[in-house]
Automatic annotation (TrEMBL):
Its main location: plastid. This is 30S ribosomal protein S16-1, chloroplastic. Transmembrane segments: none annotated. The gene is LOC104729752. HAMAP family: Ribosomal_bS16. Keywords: Ribonucleoprotein, Ribosomal protein. Residues 94-105 have a biased composition (Polar residues). InterPro entries: Ribosomal_bS16 (IPR000307), Ribosomal_bS16_dom_sf (IPR023803).
Amino acid sequence: MTVKIRLARFGCKHRPFYRVVVADEKSRRDGKQIEVIGFYDPLQGKEDANRVSLKFDRVKYWLSVGAQPTDSVENMLFRAGLIPPKSMVVKGSKNGQQSTSQHVSPITGEILN
């Protein structure tokens, strides 16, 4: 059983509201969930404190036991400081020459090997 940390949509038409939930990978988006660990309200202002709320201890627990966050939740967790950023991969250069894939740090821009 693979466990995901993802968003479940609530609210009315054109007024979305999301809960950050831990659920089995095979369950539906708004279906059965294991635990609610926070919420996300996209209609609040970007700097509003009520835009995102997470239970940090429960998020850390689920990440420690192997739960995989979806891309949108991963961005939220990165902004909250709970996970490090993904490393970026450079595939080629602008002049058309293909080089070998290199991992680049998204913060410093240094090549990692």
